[in-house]
Amino acid sequence: MSGEFYHPPVKRSVEIAGHKTSISLEPLFWDLLRDAAEAEGVPLNALVARIDAERIEAATAPGLAGAVRLWLAARACR
Predict the structure, then answer these.
(1) Can you give the residue ranges of the Ribbon-helix-helix domain (predicted)?
(2) What is the DSSP pairing of strand 10-16 with strand 19-25?
């Protein structure tokens, strides 16, 4: 694995239920998130909103960035 994967997080704005929020993710996770949204045929904001709704229902809800990373990891394991 090359050093290109070890890039600090990049903050980007997303809109969830009509409210803007920012998420800091490493570029690799942004790429994976975009690919997942495209594969599921939904806009990136809609996918993040779905992940957010799922994380809020968790017994011990992680932060949104952590939830996105966990969701992507679980998706990769399918």
Answers:
(1) 9-74
(2) antiparallel
Q: What b/e readout covers 43-77, taking b as 16+ CB neighbours within 10 angstroms?
A: ebeebbbebbeebeeeeeeeebbebbbebbeeeee
Q: Report the chain (78 residues): mean pLDDT per 10 consecutive residues.
A: 78 93 96 97 97 93 95 93
Class of domain 3-77: mainly alpha
Q: Where are the domains of the chain?
A: 3-77
